[in-house]
Each structure stands twice: as structure tokens, then as C-alpha cells.
Amino acid sequence: MHTKWNPHRYIGGVIAALLLASAGAGCASQPALQPQGEQGVADTPSEISLMLILNRDDPPQGTIVPALQTMTNTKLIFNWVPDNIYSDKMVAAIATGTLPKAVQVKAVDVLHPSVVNGIRSGLFWEIGPYLKEYPLLSKYVNPVIQNNASYFGKTYGIYWERPQSRQGIQYRKDWLDRLGLKEPRAINDIYEVLKAFTYGDPDGNGKQDTLGLVDRNDLVYGAFKNIAAYFGAPNGWGLAEGRLVPDFMTPEYADAMKFMKKLYDEKLINPDFTVTSKVQQEERFVKGEAGMMISNVVASSIRNRIQKVNKMANVEIMNRVQGPKGERIWGGSGFGGLFLFPKSSVKSEAELREVLAFFNRLLSEDVNNLITYGMQDRHYNLNPDHKTVKIMPDTQTLREQEVEPYANALRTFDIRYLRLGETSELQDKIQTMIEDNARIAVNDPTTGLFSQTQAEKGTELQTIITDATYQFILGKLDARGFANEVEKWRRSGGDRIMEELNHEYAQINK
Fold first, then answer.
1. Do 469 and 257 meet the contact criterion of CB atoms below 8 Å apart?
2. What does the DSSP assignment read for 321-377?
3. Residue 404: which H helix or E strand, with range?
4. Residue in 175, 174, 185 with CA at minimum distance from that of residue 319
5. Is the pLDDT score of 432 beyond 60?
6. CA separation for the pair 73, 43 (Å, rounded)
7. Bigger pLDDT: 9 or 454?
8. Nearest to residue 20, comparing CAs of 321, 510, 409, 456?
9. How far is 170 from 386, CA to CA, in rounded Å?
10. Ramachandran quadrant class, 277 (left: phi over 0; alpha: psi -120 to 50; beta: rest)
């Protein structure tokens, strides 16, 4: 049985890890290791070219590569490219036709015009019809995420998984208990708790020196988008009478702005939230200046840090808040990028099947354990239960040099057959909450749709709305002033974005 795992440590690296590829080194020939039902398995090793993102100063040691090649019956050559120049290298490789057999495309580049035009012109294989031939790929592919990672309604890539939502509420349970309050379950409950945390002396020092909520200068990963989801706002875009509309043109978005303005007017939130960084937000929460954060949940590290300051402090987490449309949470696409397979280097269906067989094999137990933890007795020890591993401090440096770059690069799906034995109860609770979030996460229906205007002007136009949202919350714009900014967005290219996205949506769903 495989075990779903907390992705915080590894998935961020997976998002930035495996991309354009270039060819393989070393060999082995144990086709008997291939899973039953595998397609494209040859008697001689298959050559798979990979170009990977380098997040270190130096390329990783290849200690585990011989075993990886033996297990997958491949020859692998890794071309490690620094992350800060990876996107440029990928675009250049597309332009010059010097592509490897597997091209990893980061999330920020999935809708890059070079990639989209490459898909449209037939540069890459459509792999959807082949996936059913690979048992493990078929088993772990999530239909919702696969749809988000599609182009024009078709599957061209193997996505690498990212939690659909890590969002939630972290709060001071000891403050709640001292004030005799229960965990908030609805939007108004959150307001009442924040008011009590601000004016009820929750730390018991006899001073009014606490805040309800500490937030940061990020509408998406801070409190605002989560609160908007509680009120029933769409995620980025929503459907109204069969047409796509941006979230900021919905009444639910307006309700969220009014709620945030109420928190600001009543001084229940830090007044400088528009210029507060994530690091500063967490520092202020750790110091006991505020009793709640609504954001990406990092409670395990926060609890450890806060208890060094105050041993009596108790940080708890929650994710389900009742709103007008039920329990909802803001969610992402569920993927951090994907692998595409160019026809210029993968010249036949037989070669494509060999490449897909490699990705399928990466999901098997022995290979997954190798690229996740490394080699037993060198990089980890197996605990007596034979289900969990122990990482010794003296092997951590070895793992960073010899294992983690490959884990970041090659672990496409968030699965583990072995678990770390040192996880805390709170870490397990965070993972359970992330899995539960997937059931209530609000999906963006435009994920996977392409708008040329959005590609060219989307960032510039979004700034108009972000600034207007902040100005409304701070009381510098009223409803009419916000509406005027929306009209500015529409005149500056927003109407074209709506037209283009609705056209793409209609073509896929006709």
C-alpha cells in the first residue's frame, strides 16, 4: 500500500525540478523488473534524454544513477540547467528544435506562447490515448488535475503533482481556551474570534496589545482569496449564465472586500498588511502579536518556533468554514508543471512508449523508494517496522548531494511507499487537512485555457485589480470607484481576455 505524504518538503522542489531533457548515461538490462502490462520495454536499455533544473551551486552526485538505470532498464544522461536561466533555455530549445525526449515545463511557462504555439503546430505528442497502457500512471492520474493540465481539452503532458490547496487557518488555541471560545466554524465566528483576540486580552497580560489577524501583502496566498472562497467567490474565474467572468466582477468578491474592510476599520488586522512580507507575518505571529493567520498552513514549523518563545503557546489548524455556498477553500491547479514529449526527438510511437514506460516505472515501489530516500544504509536506515525510515544527521549532507535533486526532479506524483518515522502528530494533521482540502477546493475553470491578450498583458492588467482591491479595503475607494477600476481593466484589454477565454471554453465544451 502506498501512503500519501506531506509535500511541503519535496513537492516545491518537484515543481522547479525536471524540465527539458537531453539524453542518458549508464546502462543495465533487467527487463524482468518492468511491471506486468508495461508497453515499449526493450531487451536493451532505452535511451531517455532529460534536462533538469539545478537548484544547487553544483550538479548532484550520480551515486544512485546506476541503480536507477538498472531498475528502469534505461540509459540516462542528465543535463542540469540553473533554475534562473531554465525558462530561457527551454524557449530557445523550442525555437531551434534542439529538444530532448522529455521537456519539463514549469507552471509559469505552461501557457507561454512558445509552448502553446508548439502544441498547436503539432510539435508535441498527444499522450492521452496511450496512458491507459501504463497501470501506475493510470492509477495515480487525478482527472481534475489532468484536465487543468490539458491543452485544448487534450492531454499532452504528464503533470507533476502539487496539493490542490494547502490553505487553512492557524490560530492560538490557548488564547481561544483562555477566552472560553470554541473553534470558529462559520464566517461570522471568525469575526467574533478576531474581535476577542484583539480586545479581550487573550494573552492575559492586562494590556490591549494583540491583534486578531496578521496578514501579508499577497491577495492570493494571504487571507483575501481564502475569505473570498468562504463567501462563495469563484477561483480566478467563474461561470455566470454559461459565460466565464473574472472573480472581481462577482458580488461574492465584493462581500469579501467588505468583510476585510470591516476588519481593517475595526483594527482587527495589522494596518500595514499591504506592505507586510510573509516572513514578517510569521515572525509577528510567533512573537504573539496576533492570534490568527489565514494562509498557506505551515503550523508544524510555526508551533516549534512559537514554543521556543512561549512554552504554553498552542497553535492549532482548521480548514472548513461554513459560508453562503457551503464549505469551500481556495485552490490551485494541483500541478506545478508538466513533461511534454517532442516529436522531433521522440520519432515514433515505439519511442514514445519507451519514454512513457520510464515514467510509469518511476512510480513503482522500488524506484520510488530509491529516488525519494536513496540507498538503504547509506542515505537512510529502515526502522524495525519496515514501513518507515530514519534519516541520521550524519547522512543528511549525503542525501542533499546524492538524492534530493533526483527526488525533486523525478517524483511526479505525491506518493510514498515508505514514510519518515519522525513525523509529528501535527504534521500528520496537516497532511490530513491537505487531503481534505481537495474535496472542497474551488477550481479555476480557465486553467488550461489560453488567451493571447492575457499572455501579453495579464500581469499589467491584474495590477489594476490588485491595487483597486487594496484601495477599497483601506477605504480609499468606494464601490463606484472600484467599478471604475474594473472598467479601466476592461478597456485596457480585459474585454479581449474575456472574449478569448470564452471562445476557448466554448470550443472545448461544445
1. yes
2. -EETTEE-EE---SEEEEEE-BTTTS-SHHHHHHHHHHHHHTTSHHHHHHHHH-SBT
3. helix 404-410
4. 185
5. yes
6. 8
7. 454
8. 409
9. 34
10. beta
Torsion sign across C-alpha atoms 448, 450, 451, 455: positive
Among 27-31, 119-123, 230-234, 256-260, which stretch is predicted with the lowest mean pLDDT?
27-31
Cell readout for 423 is 513525523
Q: b vs e for 285-310, b when ≥16 Cβ sit within 10 Å of the residue's Cβ?
A: bbebebbbbbbbbbbbebbebbeeee
Residues 6+ apart with CB under 8 A from 163: 7, 11, 332, 334, 414, 434, 437, 438
- Termini Cα distance of the chain: 40
Would you place residue 504 in the very low, low, confident or very high pLDDT band (cuts 50, 70, 90)? very high
Please write the tens of the pLDDT for every residue from 442-453.
999 999 899 999
At 467-501, the pLDDT tens digits run: 999 999 999 999 999 999 999 999 999 999 999 99
Q: pLDDT tens digits, residue range 318-336?
A: 999 999 999 999 998 899 8
Closest CA to 73 of 425, 367, 504, 449: 367
Whole-structure pTM value? 0.79
Task: Count Cβ neighbours within 10 Å for each residue of 260-281 and write b for 16 or more, e otherwise.
Answer: beebbeeebbbeebbebebebb
Task: Name the nearest CA neighbour of 372 among 411, 423, 413, 422.
Answer: 411
d(CA 31, CA 379): 26
Amino acid letter for position 500: E
* C-alpha cell, 457: 498583458
Question: Quick one: cell of 363?
Answer: 512510480
Q: What are phi and psi of 462, to 5 degrees?
A: -65, -30
Distance CA 497, CA 465 (A): 14
Lookup: cell for 310: 512561549
